Request: fold
Amino acid sequence: GQQVMQIPQYQHVQEGEDFTTYCNSSTTLSNIQWYKQRPGGHPVFLIQLVKSGEVKKQKRLTFQFGEAKKNSSLHITATQTTDVGTYFCAGPRVDSNYQLIWGAGTKLIIKP
Amino acid sequence: DAGVIQSPRHEVTEMGQEVTLRCKPISGHDYLFWYRQTMMRGLELLIYFNNNVPIDDSGMPEDRFSAKMPNASFSTLKIQPSEPRDSAVYFCASSFTGATEAFFGQGTRLTVV
Reply:
């Protein structure tokens, strides 16, 4: 069945270092969405990418959608403690454009 | 709008008891989703509704789980009888057009002892 794989599962960084999470779909996606979940919180929508090769920026966050629309990445420059949380990617199911298939998430941990 | 509202925020119950989780979606959103999140299994879609009609309940783990949406502003997820393995955070989410931006409630943390 359709899958969305996300790596790594965890990433430990020193504050100020960069962070990247990668998302790979088994199928071509019409769009890909990114969400952030703070510890003890709920997933919050960050952005949606639709076009092949699209790159969008939100301050220190850079989102990319691959040319084949099967992979995506989120890069955070110079992490801050406020970036701590789990980042999820999600894309529509191919057989039901009304459901999202979720990656397992990448947990960003800032080393003390 | 106050966003998606879930209640209760925390629920501790004994095995065998009935549990009812409640959700009020964002007004105007036609889609409502119930998710379960655990460390082991991540975020799982249990069921979703479109215009109050259940569309896909294939994620509901067992017959002990049931969900209803009697009107556009209210949905319930019921577990009867509850078991310890049902312990998880249950999220309700709503969206305007299905697989687009989903707005999540703050979740209900369920503990079955």
Summary: The mean pLDDT of chain A is 95. Residues 88 and 108 of chain A are 11 Å apart (CA to CA). Chain A has no helices and eleven strands. The first strand of chain A starts at residue 4 and ends at 7.
